[in-house]
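Deviation from plan, reported transparently: flavin-adenine dinucleotide complex.
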Amino acid sequence: MTPEIYRVRRTRQETHDTFTLELEPDEGAPVSGFAPGQFNMLYAFGVGEVPISVSGNPTRPGLLLHTVREVGTVTQALRRLKRGETVGVRGPFGSSWPVGQAAGRDVVVVAGGIGLAPLRPALYAILANRENYGRVVLMYGTRSPEDILYRKELERWRARFDMSVHVTVDRALGTWRGSVGVVTTIVPRAGFDPGSAVALVCGPEMMMRFTILELQKRGVGLEQIYISMERNMKCAIGFCGHCQLGPTFICRDGPVFRFDRIQPFFELREV
Ligand SMILES: Cc1cc2nc3c(=O)[nH]c(=O)nc-3n(C[C@H](O)[C@H](O)[C@H](O)COP(=O)(O)OP(=O)(O)OC[C@H]3O[C@@H](n4cnc5c(N)ncnc54)[C@H](O)[C@@H]3O)c2cc1C
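Because the crystal trials were delayed, the predicted structure below was used instead.
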C-alpha cells in the first residue's frame, strides 16, 4: 500500500483537457515493468490517489507514462505538478490485454476518446513483434478533432503498410477533412477476419456496448472480445470492495476482461 516516489520529468499537453505525465523514479531506481492494460494508483500528495492506466511503451521501459484527463480534484492536482515535483506511485495492478494470446491472429483495436491511452501499450507491443500477427486494425473515434490523442503517432501508424488506421469524429469542426460519424460505423467495413480476430475495446461504456454489437454482427464471438472496465476504486488490491462488480473486483480481476466472462455484470451501473 506504500507508494514509491516518482518525479515529474515532463508534462505534455495532448488536448485541451488531457495531458501525459512522464515520470521517473526518484534517485534513478529502475522503472518497474508493466503489461499493456495495467494501471497504477497515482497519489497527488495532500490531495488524493486515483487509478490511471499506463500509456507508455512496455518494450522500452525507463520512463513511466500516464495520459490523464482533468475531471476533478486529483487529476487537476496532477496537472498542476511542475517538473521535478513528486508523485506517489503504487502498482502496476490488474489484468492485461491478451497480446500474447493474439499471436497468429488478426488484431482489431477499437478506442473511444481517452480509451486509446490504455490501448497504446498493446499497440506498441504488437508492432514491436509485428511478424507474429495477422492484420492489425485500429479504429479510433473522438467527439471532435480537438479531442484526438497522440496525433503524430497516429499519423506515423497510418503511414505504415502493415497496419490500417481509421480515425473518425462525432462532429466535424474547422478544417477537419477526415471521417465523420461514430466509431462503430467503421466496424462493418474494416478489413479483418471475424472468425479468428481478437478485438480489444476501450472507451465510454455506451461506445463499448455498441462496438460489441457491431463486432457480433460481423461474426466476432464474445469470447474473442476484450474490454477494459473503469469503476471507482480505492485500494487496488481487491480488499476494500469499492470496485466490486458481482463476484469480481475490477482492480484485481480486471480492468481487462474477456467480454463473455463479464457480460452479466457489464450492464450494472456503479453504486
Ligand atoms: C482501472 C482504471 C484506469 C483508469 N485509467 C485512466 C487513464 O488512463 N486516464 C484517465 O484520465 N483516467 C483514467 N481512469 C479514470 C480516473 O481514475 C478518474 O478520472 C479519476 O479517478 C477522477 O478523479 P478526480 O479526483 O480527478 O475526480 P473526482 O473529483 O473524483 O470527480 C470529479 C467529477 O468527474 C467525474 N468523473 C470521475 N471519473 C470520471 C471519468 N473517468 N470520466 C468522466 N468523468 C469522471 C465524477 O463523477 C465527478 O463528477 C481510470 C480509472 C480506472 C478505474
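The first strand starts at residue 4 and ends at 15. We consider this an acceptable substitute for the interim report.
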